[in-house]
């Protein structure tokens, strides 16, 4: 891991990302990765959190957390790194499981020198755009392994792309006797579980940081709207009921910000401490996403229900963040050790 | 007092049998699957009700209505919802029909009411304006007298179902008075008149059934006004009084809660098994069910007695927040299945996202759309202002 950034370096990184995302044109991944030189940030959660927060603030459609998670896994497995401009994403979730990796049913069996892969992966972010897919599969009872897959090799791979509620691209994947070369296996055969657990916590820390930017923006939009919207001869922000509601939103935003720090700093801890801290953070982030999202719509009245204003789109990204890797109940169970 | 009488129970059974036997099954099937209903579906549904004499709920008998007691009306609503039948689009049948019956001219009753019952005309409600939402009385939409006509100008917004409607009833300012609630008239217009343009508004759930309607020098005869000039605020309040329990939807809440358990039985849980066995989900479900039991009892209490504006406001808050809590349970139990955004008009989700249960997109889109329940019909905040005015009186 690189040395921690100084305050000045952090500010410089934040300003650079903000300037890039503030341009008129929609950001595109390879250009974003290249122009900002994010190679180091893919593996460094402190830098990553700064980038993720700005992505959240602007609701940019960029696979930053997906690519960072995949890059970290490749690095940990001593697999050749990808150029930062490549899109890589991890396919883990399946229709017959909820959030526990133990529920993964996709499996790979040896076939000559290589492997054959069978199984279904659900709602894999950026799968249709990806240059590389990392797929979690069983290679024996209770033995999870990671495979690096080239999605251009479509034989035995059915990919159904669609948009998710946050307008991000995703796809469902069905592997049927999909042939893989010997070197598709990365990392220790059957030893991927701990790696996946750690990768998830890293991804969650980035999501927490993204939520901070996202929720800050929702609060700002709501303050601006209620300050300008007039009913009963005055700006509706003049009603104390709404003032207190926005204060409640602010309190949730601040706890989400502290939660993101908690999660990022916990990534260096031993597994049990890391898990407890990250899950504590995410319980609060999920609560903030729910509350701030609901109140932002409510305080915008009918306008909050429209596709035209950004509010609804921010709310839907917040709704995705709540469950992308696990939900609040899963985190609570992990904290409680049940 | 919370139990049905023997006659009411008999009535309930008759209604139940009707929906099981004499109501279009394809409408129930589409509704159950969470697909959007077409206009034709609504026509089929309304025709079945009308054939039985059950469409004019809340209308007096002499104009073809059911003449039901509030309790019978409630029982009917509940059975309709439990059967997954189509909700009656309220604009014509529930909102304007009873006003026409009470305040309309004989000609208006003869022209408009049978057309509604026979599904020949659908209506839209033109109350809200861009600058007049919660503060409806500040509306600016104008009707200026010109001989035997009114000339209508202005913008109506959030008009539900205008894309299907043949007519719109509008609150229009016919004079400037000291109190802004005065000088407002209730004027109807066919939506195909020159000068009217309907612009769909897309909502966050992907629907586009709300509209903005522009009126540019639209001419309608004075005979399109319902009741007296300047009295619309009064009529709207009479309507409000009649309809104060129409937000209850106890039947659909029970139905949706039951459906959630059923869907949970198909969703995998952490550590194996299915979500209907998941303790956290079951407790959350029980919490909402307990709330609903108290709300149902409150509605039954209200049915059997006169209720104040404040009580009606309190019930509106309780009912709509409970409906939202149910949709929250829905997205919670759906988990990652809430993520795909699929077109609800499409029949074949399974092909679009083969690894996702179709319940997910339905759950998330319901959650998003039902956020509106605490905004329309008087927002929660506005209802609380009404309730507080009555509580403040108690302190004096
Ligand atoms: C799905 C949907 C369907 C609709 N269908 C129709 C229709 O068919 N016909 C029609 O005419 N209209 C319709 N409406 C409009 C609806 O009635 C309005 O949205 C509603 O009156 C609120 O007005 P607004 O949207 O302008 O919000 P605003 O009045 O601007 O309210 C914004 C926020 O300010 C709060 N607020 C306002 N005043 C106060 C106060 N005094 N104290 C505290 N808080 C306050 C509100 O509670 C809300 O949170 C529909 C709306 C929706 C969302």
From TrEMBL, chain A:
<feature type="domain" description="Acyl-CoA dehydrogenase/oxidase C-terminal">
    <location>
        <begin position="206"/>
        <end position="324"/>
    </location>
</feature>
<comment type="similarity">
    <text>Belongs to the acyl-CoA dehydrogenase family.</text>
</comment>
<dbReference type="InterPro" id="IPR009100">
    <property type="entry name" value="AcylCoA_DH/oxidase_NM_dom_sf"/>
</dbReference>
<dbReference type="InterPro" id="IPR046373">
    <property type="entry name" value="Acyl-CoA_Oxase/DH_mid-dom_sf"/>
</dbReference>
<dbReference type="Pfam" id="PF02770">
    <property type="entry name" value="Acyl-CoA_dh_M"/>
</dbReference>
<dbReference type="InterPro" id="IPR036250">
    <property type="entry name" value="AcylCo_DH-like_C"/>
</dbReference>
<dbReference type="InterPro" id="IPR006091">
    <property type="entry name" value="Acyl-CoA_Oxase/DH_mid-dom"/>
</dbReference>
<keyword id="KW-0285">Flavoprotein</keyword>
<keyword id="KW-0274">FAD</keyword>
<feature type="domain" description="Acyl-CoA oxidase/dehydrogenase middle">
    <location>
        <begin position="90"/>
        <end position="177"/>
    </location>
</feature>
<dbReference type="GO" id="GO:0003995">
    <property type="term" value="F:acyl-CoA dehydrogenase activity"/>
</dbReference>
<protein>
    <recommendedName>
        <fullName>Acyl-CoA dehydrogenase</fullName>
    </recommendedName>
</protein>
<dbReference type="InterPro" id="IPR009075">
    <property type="entry name" value="AcylCo_DH/oxidase_C"/>
</dbReference>
<dbReference type="Pfam" id="PF00441">
    <property type="entry name" value="Acyl-CoA_dh_1"/>
</dbReference>
<keyword id="KW-0560">Oxidoreductase</keyword>
TrEMBL record, chain B:
<feature type="domain" description="Acyl-CoA dehydrogenase/oxidase N-terminal">
    <location>
        <begin position="5"/>
        <end position="118"/>
    </location>
</feature>
<dbReference type="InterPro" id="IPR052161">
    <property type="entry name" value="Mycobact_Acyl-CoA_DH"/>
</dbReference>
<feature type="domain" description="Acyl-CoA oxidase/dehydrogenase middle">
    <location>
        <begin position="124"/>
        <end position="218"/>
    </location>
</feature>
<protein>
    <recommendedName>
        <fullName>Acyl-CoA dehydrogenase</fullName>
    </recommendedName>
</protein>
<keyword id="KW-0560">Oxidoreductase</keyword>
<keyword id="KW-0274">FAD</keyword>
<dbReference type="InterPro" id="IPR046373">
    <property type="entry name" value="Acyl-CoA_Oxase/DH_mid-dom_sf"/>
</dbReference>
<keyword id="KW-0285">Flavoprotein</keyword>
<dbReference type="GO" id="GO:0016627">
    <property type="term" value="F:oxidoreductase activity, acting on the CH-CH group of donors"/>
</dbReference>
<comment type="similarity">
    <text>Belongs to the acyl-CoA dehydrogenase family.</text>
</comment>
<dbReference type="Pfam" id="PF02770">
    <property type="entry name" value="Acyl-CoA_dh_M"/>
</dbReference>
<dbReference type="Pfam" id="PF00441">
    <property type="entry name" value="Acyl-CoA_dh_1"/>
</dbReference>
<dbReference type="GO" id="GO:0005886">
    <property type="term" value="C:plasma membrane"/>
</dbReference>
<dbReference type="InterPro" id="IPR009100">
    <property type="entry name" value="AcylCoA_DH/oxidase_NM_dom_sf"/>
</dbReference>
<dbReference type="InterPro" id="IPR037069">
    <property type="entry name" value="AcylCoA_DH/ox_N_sf"/>
</dbReference>
<feature type="domain" description="Acyl-CoA dehydrogenase/oxidase C-terminal">
    <location>
        <begin position="233"/>
        <end position="391"/>
    </location>
</feature>
<dbReference type="InterPro" id="IPR006091">
    <property type="entry name" value="Acyl-CoA_Oxase/DH_mid-dom"/>
</dbReference>
<dbReference type="GO" id="GO:0050660">
    <property type="term" value="F:flavin adenine dinucleotide binding"/>
</dbReference>
<dbReference type="InterPro" id="IPR013786">
    <property type="entry name" value="AcylCoA_DH/ox_N"/>
</dbReference>
<dbReference type="Pfam" id="PF02771">
    <property type="entry name" value="Acyl-CoA_dh_N"/>
</dbReference>
<dbReference type="InterPro" id="IPR036250">
    <property type="entry name" value="AcylCo_DH-like_C"/>
</dbReference>
<dbReference type="InterPro" id="IPR009075">
    <property type="entry name" value="AcylCo_DH/oxidase_C"/>
</dbReference>
């Amino acid at each position: 891991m690189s040395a921690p950034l100084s305050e000045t370096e952090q500010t410089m990184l934040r300003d650079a990302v903000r300037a890039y995302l503030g341009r008129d044109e929609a950001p595109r991944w390879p250009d974003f990765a290249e122009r900002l030189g994010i190679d180091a940030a893919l593996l460094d959660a402190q830098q990553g959190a700064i980038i993720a927060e700005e992505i959240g603030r602007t609701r940019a459609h960029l696979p930053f957390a997906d690519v960072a998670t995949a890059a970290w896994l490749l690095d940990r497995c001593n697999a050749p790194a990808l150029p930062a401009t490549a899109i890589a994403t991890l396919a883990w979730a399946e229709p017959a499981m909820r959030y526990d990796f133990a529920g993964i049913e996709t499996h790979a069996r040896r076939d000559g020198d290589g492997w054959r892969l069978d199984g279904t992966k659900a709602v894999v972010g950026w799968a249709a755009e990806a240059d590389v897919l990392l797929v979690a599969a069983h290679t024996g009872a209770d033995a999870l392994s990671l495979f690096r897959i080239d999605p251009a090799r479509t034989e035995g791979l059915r990919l159904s792309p669609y948009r998710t509620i946050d307008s991000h691209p995703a796809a469902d994947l069905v592997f049927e006797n999909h042939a893989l070369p010997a070197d598709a296996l990365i990392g220790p055969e059957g030893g991927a579980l701990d790696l996946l657990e750690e990768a998830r916590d890293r991804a969650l820390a980035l999501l927490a940081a993204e939520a901070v930017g996202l929720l800050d923006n929702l609060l700002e939009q709501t303050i601006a709207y209620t300050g300008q919207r007039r009913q009963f001869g005055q700006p509706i922000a003049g009603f104390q009921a709404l003032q207190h509601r926005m204060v409640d939103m602010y309190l949730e935003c601040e706890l989400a910000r502290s939660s993101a720090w908690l999660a990022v700093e916990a990534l260096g801890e031993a597994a049990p401490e890391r898990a407890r801290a990250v899950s504590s953070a995410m319980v609060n982030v999920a609560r903030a996403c729910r509350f701030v999202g609901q109140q932002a719509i409510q305080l915008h009245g009918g306008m909050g229900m429209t596709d035209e204003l950004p509010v609804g789109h921010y709310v839907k990204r917040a709704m995705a963040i709540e469950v992308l890797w696990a939900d609040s109940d899963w985190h609570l169970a992990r904290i409680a050790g049940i | 007092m919370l139990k049905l009488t023997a006659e009411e129970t008999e009535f309930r059974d008759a209604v139940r049998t009707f929906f099981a036997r004499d109501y279009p099954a394809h409408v129930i099937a589409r509704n159950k699957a969470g697909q959007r209903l077409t206009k034709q579906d609504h026509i089929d549904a309304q025709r079945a009700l009308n054939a039985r004499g059950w469409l004019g709920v809340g209308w007096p008998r002499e104009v073809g209505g059911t003449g039901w007691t509030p309790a019978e009306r409630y029982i009917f609503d509940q059975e309709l919802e439990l059967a997954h039948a189509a909700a009656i689009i309220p604009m014509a049948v529930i909102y304007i029909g009873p006003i026409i019956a009470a305040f309309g001219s004989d000609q208006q009753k003869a022209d408009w009411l049978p057309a509604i019952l026979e599904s020949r005309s659908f209506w839209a409600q033109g109350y809200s304006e861009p600058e007049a939402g919660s503060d409806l009385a500040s509306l600016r939409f104008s009707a200026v007298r010109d001989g035997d006509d009114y000339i209508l100008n202005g913008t109506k917004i959030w008009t539900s179902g205008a894309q299907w409607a043949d007519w719109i009833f509008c609150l229009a300012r016919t004079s400037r008075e000291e109190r802004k609630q005065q000088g407002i008239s209730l004027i109807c217009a066919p939506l195909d008149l020159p000068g009217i343009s309907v612009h769909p508004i897309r909502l966050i759930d992907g629907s586009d059934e709300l509209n903005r309607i522009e009126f540019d020098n639209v001419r309608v005869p004075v005979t399109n006004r319902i009741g007296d000039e300047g009295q619309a605020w009064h009529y709207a309040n009479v309507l409000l009084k009649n309809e104060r329990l129409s937000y209850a939807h106890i039947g659909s809440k029970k139905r949706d809660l039951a459906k959630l358990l059923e869907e949970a039985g198909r969703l995998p849980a952490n550590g194996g098994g299915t979500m209907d066995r998941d303790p956290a989900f079951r407790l959350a479900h029980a919490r909402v069910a307990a709330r609903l039991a108290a709300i149902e009892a409150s509605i039954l209490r209200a049915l059997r007695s006169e209720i104040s504006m404040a009580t009606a406001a309190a019930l509106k808050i309780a009912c709509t927040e409970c409906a939202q809590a149910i949709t929250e349970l829905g997205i919670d139990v759906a988990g990652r299945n809430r993520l795909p955004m699929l077109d609800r008009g499409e029949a074949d989700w399974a092909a679009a996202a083969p690894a996702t249960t179709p319940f997910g997109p339905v759950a998330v889109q319901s959650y998003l759309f039902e956020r509106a329940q605490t905004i329309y019909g008087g927002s929660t905040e506005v209802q609380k202002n009404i309730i507080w005015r009555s509580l403040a009186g108690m302190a004096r």
